[in-house]
Specification:
Layout (H helix, E strand, L loop, with lengths): L22 H20 L3 H14 L3 E2 H7 L8 E6 L3 E6 L9 E7 L4 E12 L2 E9 L12 E8 L5 E6 L9 E2 L15 H4 L7 E4 L11 H14 L9 E7 L4 E3 L5 E4 L2 H14 L8 E7 L16 H12 L5 H9 L2 E4 L3 E2 L21 E4 L3 E2 L10 H13 L4 E3 L9 E2 L3 H5 L4 E6 L1 E2 L7 E4 H17 L1
Parallel strand pairs: 1-2, 4-14, 4-15, 15-21, 16-22, 17-19
Antiparallel strand pairs: 2-3, 3-14, 5-6, 5-11, 6-10, 7-8, 7-11, 9-10, 12-13, 13-23, 17-21, 18-20
Helix pairs in contact: 1-11, 6-11, 7-8, 9-11
Length: 471
Amino acid sequence: MEDNKKKSPFAKEYEIAWDKYSQKDLKNVFELADRYIDFMSRCKTERECVEEFRNRAERAGYKNLQDLIEANKKLKAGDKVYAELMGKTIALFVIGKRPLEDGMLILGAHVDSPRLDLKQNPLYEDTGLALLDTHYYGGIKKYQWVTMPLALHGVIVKKDGTKINVVIGEDDGDPVFGVSDLLIHLAKDQMKKSLAEGVEGEKLNVLVGSIPINDKKVKNRVKQNILKILNDKYGIVEEDFVSAEIEVVPAGRARHYGFDNSMIMAYGQDDRVCAYTSFEAMMEIEKPEKTCVTLLVDKEEIGSVGATGMHSRFFENTVAEIANLMGVYSELTIRRALANSKMISSDVSAAFDPNYPEVMEKQSAAFFGKGIVFNKYTGARGKSGSNDANPEFIAEIRKIMEKHDVTWQISELGKVDQGGGGTIAYILANYGMEVIDAGVALLNMHAPWEISSKADLYEAKKAYYAFLVEA
């Protein structure tokens, strides 16, 4: 029988994580939050996240898998390696003592976030103003992106292969950019539209300049002046936009939130809050029994498609290369390794918002301060498009969380017929492995600035570490 006298860290009984923290715990909570805020302030694109994780992993002793393949180096228990794809997806491995075909313990998150992307021919002039044309990425409420300071992050690749990194709008001396909105005095017709129709996607054009070049003979003088500025600073010409990947994101640092500094406001917490805590947990793993993996992928917000999305063969191919360097490669070994694995799909959930209680069912909602959120299933309405975790696996997870005193809760993403969402969980589950979603609850999900609880951030990192050392 279970010991009913022992208090469970399940949030239904253990009401709030803050109540259990010692002074040492609180110090750790706020130090983790400070590191996270610094990361979120600097890393606002997939490339920036992967570069940061790669650099930190290398400092921690991780070796580039491709270098090991070329040198035909063998892998053994305790070795740390990483594989990267196109600068936008990364997988980190710590080789375990047990055979690979016994399965891996996987944390999987995504590092892409909703935003505006520049189109391939973005720069134009209209009535003496220079603007950049955009195409929004992922699910956004378009009206949230107007009249706020925006920054440009990304990369431009010239024909000769030169790669130019671009970050404009983050330093105090930088200009910022923005999308204009219709003044209230003339918004009679706009105000009659639904929220979805009030701002059209083709009107999310970013204002970038208004001074004409000092040559009255040329056309589009403001546009030409912007091109001159870009050429002087970066050495690029207009055609270089064709081979550029520039993302328009909220300008400014992530911030402490609330009088008590208990929360965090940042762009891109879906899903970098889970990517970051998964990575931090992974950095603490040394000589595990089973091979541990942290998989951070791109393109989840648009269906996990493409070479850098979870639907690609990148992870499967990487596991094959790992097996080869371990001297155990065979098709059967790869299949068994994947099928026998266990995974936490590290993705965010929706926190209960007292301003909008009508979309939530309190009995099955997630709340700030009650720890990491497990979702048995996601999907929409009739669980469409969902992974649905097995109760045997959930029972195992419960035991692990209790052993490591991780405060946790379990929820659904709103009322049954209200909507829904998905993660990468079902894609890995296709291999036959055990998978469950677990992450940090957010307010303002998919808005330019999202809100999380520092206590939940801390409990998520603890949960991910506990899974890697116990499952």
